[in-house]
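Figure 6 in text form: structure in, sequence out.
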């Protein structure tokens, strides 16, 4: 049965043709009485011709709704002129009215409604019921008009329903495209975040390793113990950098960190102490103070604060020159976390920081501003009076969940 149903849905004209043949057969039987004489007014050929045309209207109604409506109207006028009384075939008028209201053009739908409301009255005037009173004839005309009105209302309701479902489908398709666009934006943002993370990790840890390697090479012969300590620092720094890079690159591989669980957590404010100790061990004097009452912070703020300090100290090491020192202040306000990183080195041109370093290929202050902007904070950076560089940031706090 399902196959038959699917076949009929794919070939609606065949279904309409079947019903058209049935309608023509019933009309032919109603046109002729048992003794072979015409059953209604008008000639038998004219009645059969009208039935044939109206049957064609039913057969082709879905393929050509507007032309078939016009054919039905001309046929109805011909019935009035040729005095061919209404037959079973006139049921096609109801069918084409419904069809045009459901799938036809708007002008055709309005025309069908207007004509259908007048058809019963015109037929009653042309072929009045002689035994009925004037009031009875009006009642008959109204009664015969009701099916036409209902056919149009049903067809128009189907049009509205189809339009509603088409709108829903269009909206679903649009939402799907928007989700795809949002996914692409999210991927791009994630790639930018990974690039910033990799810049911070590589720039900081590699600079530490370079400084330690230079120091080890300098004291290799005169102070082997210091050289050994420098090599140990290089080793631990390299392992830390590799661990962070594995974590960052792992997010590009779907589900990998859930499967292995090997990636280290995101850096937070608590690890700033370790970062500063690493800088001190590499030969950069850093003064670190915390003011206010430490408390839990949103993970985004924690990571942003850590990366700002890391980037600032890396820039001090790269651009501050020999003998440069730095100071880091971490201040807990009621509604924000303040960061102040200053150095007293000779500094570098502000443009180099904006470009991300002397090579112009990093993220530098651009990356800092992006990080701060992502958590709704503000950043102020520039040279200090008398030399050195100053970075100040205010990160708004939200209740930690």
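Output sequence:
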């Amino acid at each position: 049965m399902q196959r038959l149903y699917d076949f009929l849905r794919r070939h609606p004209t065949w279904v309409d043709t079947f019903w058209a043949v049935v309608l023509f057969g019933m009309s032919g039987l109603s046109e002729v009485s048992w003794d072979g004489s015409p059953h209604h007014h008008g000639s038998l050929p004219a009645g059969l011709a009208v039935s044939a045309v109206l049957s064609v209207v039913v057969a082709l109604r879905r393929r050509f709704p507007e032309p078939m409506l016009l054919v039905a109207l001309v046929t109805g006028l011909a019935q009035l002129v040729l005095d061919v009384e209404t037959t079973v075939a006139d049921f096609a008028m109801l069918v084409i009215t419904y069809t045009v209201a459901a799938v036809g053009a708007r002008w055709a739908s309005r025309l069908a409604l207007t004509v259908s409301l007048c058809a019963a009255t015109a037929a009653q005037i042309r072929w009045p019921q002689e035994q009925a009173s004037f009031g009875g004839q009006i009642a008959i005309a109204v009664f015969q008009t009701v099916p036409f009105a209902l056919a149009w209302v049903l067809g128009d309701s189907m049009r509205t329903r189809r339009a509603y479902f088409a709108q829903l489908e269009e909206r679903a398709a649009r939402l799907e495209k928007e989700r795809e666009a949002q996914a692409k934006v999210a991927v791009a943002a994630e790639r930018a975040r990974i690039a910033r993370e990799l810049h911070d990790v590589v720039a900081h840890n590699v600079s530490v390793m370079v400084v330690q390697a230079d120091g080890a090479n300098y004291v290799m012969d005169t102070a082997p113990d210091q050289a050994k300590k420098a090599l140990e620092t290089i080793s631990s720094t390299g392992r830390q950098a590799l661990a962070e890079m594995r974590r960052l690159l792992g997010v590009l591989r779907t589900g990998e960190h859930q499967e292995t669980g090997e990636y280290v957590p995101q850096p937070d404010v608590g690890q700033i102490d370790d970062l500063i100790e690493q800088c001190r061990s590499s030969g950069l004097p850093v003064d670190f103070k915390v003011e206010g009452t430490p408390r839990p912070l949103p993970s985004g703020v924690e990571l942003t604060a850590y990366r700002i300090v890391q980037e600032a100290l890396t820039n001090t090491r790269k651009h501050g020159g020999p003998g440069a020192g730095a100071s880091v202040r971490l201040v807990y306000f009621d509604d924000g976390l303040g960061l102040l990183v200053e150095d007293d080195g000779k500094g570098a041109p502000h443009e180099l920081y904006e470009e991300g370093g002397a090579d112009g290929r990093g993220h530098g202050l651009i990356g800092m501003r992006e990080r701060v902007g992502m958590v709704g904070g503000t950043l102020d950076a520039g040279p200090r009076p008398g030399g050195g560089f100053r970075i100040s940031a205010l990160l708004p706090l939200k209740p930690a969940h």
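Caption detail: The chain has 13 helices and five strands.
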